[in-house]
Amino acid sequence: MIATNKSYALPPALQNQIRITWNVSHWCNYDCSYCGVLVYSRRGPERQAHSFDYYPVADWIAAFQRIQKERVVLKVLGGEPFMDRANWKQLLQALLPDPRFAFDIFTNGSWNADYFKDLPNKEKAGLIVSFHSSKTAFEPWRERLLRIRDAGFTIHSVVTVLAPENEAEAERFHAVMSSDGFVAELRPMIPAGVYRDRKNAPPPLDCDFTPAVAWMQALRNKTKGLPCYFPSASYDLEWNGEIRVSCLNRPWTDFIREPLPETPPAAVNCPLDTCIGCMEMAYSMPANPFVPPPIHIVTRGEFAGEVRQVKAATAASPDYLQKTLTGTPMPDGVTDCYDAFTNRFIDEPPVQFDIPADRIFQALPDAPAIGYLDNFLTPLELRSSDRITVSGWAYNANPAGPVKQIQVNFAGQTLRTIEEFSPRPELLEVFGRKEMLRTGFGAILFIPPVPAGEYQLSAVAVDHQGNRHPLPPQSVRVIA
Ligand code: SF4
Ligand code: SF4
User: Fold this and answer.
1) Ligand 1 pocket: which of 24, 26, 28, 41 to mutate (most atoms <8 Å of CB)?
2) Which option is the CATH number for 4-342: 1.10.3980, 3.90.1420, 3.20.20, 1.10.150?
3) What pTM did the predictor assign?
4) 209 or 250, which is more confident?
């Protein structure tokens, strides 16, 4: 049970208001290589990761309308929420006129605004529209975006991800979008999708920040123990109708049939080592000196308004952000916020571990290289062309040094070569060898189109002399 922080009672603006982050579906018409969602783009005969496959839209509408709160901010994530357009339109038709509901909807803007032209209160459907240069050319995407705005939707911001394939377009995207009057965000690429083994890509220095988000980044999202109101007014809702209070690892309950679970009556001390660090979270932390009072549920529209103010202040005084952050100590009481912000992408020294000399650890198997695909004993069942997550660890004990590369193979093809490794602290616990810490690997990748049948997913650890060490394979059944 998480203790609440009694010094931080709920401010009035959070007492009768909630945010629900609704992961509405994994459907998407795109398959961006940096996407962390196991997207798919066709409705099959079986139930899929889509809210309207689990319950009819009428059940979702009834469950939302039953919420006994004065204000409900629905943050909608996917996949692409507008793809199942008939059901989605019906949901918006029911909830947009209700004054209690506000929407922050993340979309790739690939849909036709005409289809939604008769929706009521379209201005309440606040959109964050992403541009993916490997999936659509800029000009047609921009035309669709302008049509969406002209149709009456509110566009809070437009976003592109600073993945390698988008970098060439990022500057033009930022310039044209800004001149069109949009708040244009260049979002750092996080380790996800095929880049799961990469590090965060730093944004350019002139990227748009608010001081509150800069503080969270300066903290490197390391929030454990700091007071936070986010779980006191926030829920995570999944496509299968399960809901739970955010961040607290409490059991999921049934959103469609049961009342909302209770949220903590005050701030909690953050139970997690690292926060995802979304804007919504940065603005829920009373220790964040740059959150404009009073603390409340900040929508993307308000955030975009503050970004515009910061841009105007920076245009008048280019060192505005530096001046604002400098002189504010971070929670350790020592580090200056601006220094921490500018150093936020610099690697930290590795964590030091003490391995007691007298502790008995499991012996290493007598093999030049060891390792596993996580869950290799559990057969996978999937469809041809599905996207899957692969992870595991590999350690090479022979004099050829650590593993240099992992090749992930399927049906005779190498699907991915991984050369960056992540910490697996549990191996230290088991084997007591410091050199086993950074042996984890992972990737999200597509299975190639193959006929139905039995296959093997395998990983080969390649050492620095080019020796190849196969790890135990995982069996895969591809269904039609
Ligand atoms: S990043 Fe967005 S648009 Fe691209 S595949 Fe993922 S959900 Fe779809
Ligand atoms: S993980 Fe982030 S949002 Fe959740 S309690 Fe911690 S600081 Fe707050």
Assistant:
1) 28
2) 3.20.20
3) 0.85
4) 250
